[in-house]
Design brief:
Blueprint (H helix, E strand, L loop, with lengths): L18 H15 L6 E7 L6 H9 L7 E7 L4 H10 L2 E4 L5 H11 L4 E5 L3 E3 L3 H11 L3 E5 L3 E3 L7 H17 L4 H4 L8 E4 H4 L14 H11 L3 E4 L4 E4 L23 H9 L4
Parallel strand pairs: 1-2, 1-4, 2-3, 6-9, 7-10
Antiparallel strand pairs: 4-8, 5-10, 6-8
Length: 278
């Protein structure tokens, strides 16, 4: 997957496109509006996404599939710049005024019409065959409830240095090594940026909207609930997403789903029970 083709769209708006590109994206959303019975729902949440949103849309317009699909943007009190891009191109936008990623993901699931729901992020670029690779396995195995993959990272304006390429390669190798270590280990690496799930398996559960807004909550809890209903499948597919925000040196990136996992240490359980909240 060549990210260089998306560099001209970084921090861009539709007015900066040439006439052919602009008309192509308008036509893309017009055709999506005509899909009456989507099999797959692509759901992207937006808040302050103006830097990467146009490139994200261009990447999705390059999807190659014969599977009918819809594309839904859930705006969660998005800024004017983000909404301007979506409105100008005629994208399907639904609003969720309750602030929070899980509120927004729940809204997306409620309005989705497809049998399969793909959770997307606006700072991510997707392989042209993403839909086929993530959705077709559900029709090959009726017990399957979730497909997931691992995303790679890009640097500013979709660039990949040699160091980042090596980091991405190592990340994929580490991820693969975790696959054989049991569900409690794998779940830490399931991310909403590249998951697809069977809507009927999750509709009666829903997203836990009271979770704190730290990494790993929404996708981790989704995976935990679905694990009780069927099987998961790892899919090899290219997805590139932005680097995470800076964190305090020496401290790991927080995974709030870990606090829902069964603890093996009696001492650790006692320590948590004695912890005093400020």
């Amino acid at each position: 997957m060549d990210l260089s083709i998306y560099q001209p769209y970084f921090n861009s708006v539709p007015d900066q496109l040439d006439e052919v590109q602009y008309s192509r994206l308008l036509r893309y959303f017009q055709l999506l509006d005509k899909v009456e019975k989507p099999v797959v729902s692509l759901v992207t949440l937006v808040f302050q996404a103006e830097e990467t949103l146009l490139a994200h849309i261009v990447a999705l317009s390059h999807l190659k599939t014969i599977i009918p699909y819809e594309l839904i943007f859930v705006e969660n009190n998005a800024n004017a710049e983000t909404l301007g891009i979506l409105n100008q191109l005629g994208a399907k936008v639904v609003s969720q005024p309750l602030q929070g990623i899980t509120h927004a993901r729940q809204k997306g699931m409620e309005v989705a019409r497809g049998e399969i729901v793909c959770s997307l992020d606006p700072d991510s670029l997707y392989d042209p065959y993403y839909i086929d690779r993530m959705a077709l396995p559900f029709f090959e195995d009726e017990k399957l409830v979730m497909c997931y993959s691992v995303s790679k990272r890009y640097e500013s304006d979709f660039r990949l240095s040699q160091k980042m390429k090596m980091r991405n390669w190592l990340k994929v190798q580490v991820f693969k090594s975790r696959l054989s270590r049991g569900f409690e280990e794998r779940i830490k690496y399931i991310r909403a940026v590249c998951i697809a799930f069977k809507r009927e398996s999750f509709v009666d559960i829903g997203y836990a909207v009271d979770l704190p807004l730290v990494a790993g909550c929404d996708d981790g809890m989704l995976a935990m609930h679905l694990h009780r209903k069927g099987v998961f499948k790892y899919v090899k597919v290219d997805v590139y997403t932005a680097l995470p925000p800076p964190r305090e040196p020496g401290k790991p990136f927080p995974f709030c789903n870990e606090r829902f996992l069964k603890k093996n240490s009696i001492l650790q359980e006692a320590y948590e029970a004695l912890k005093v909240n400020d």
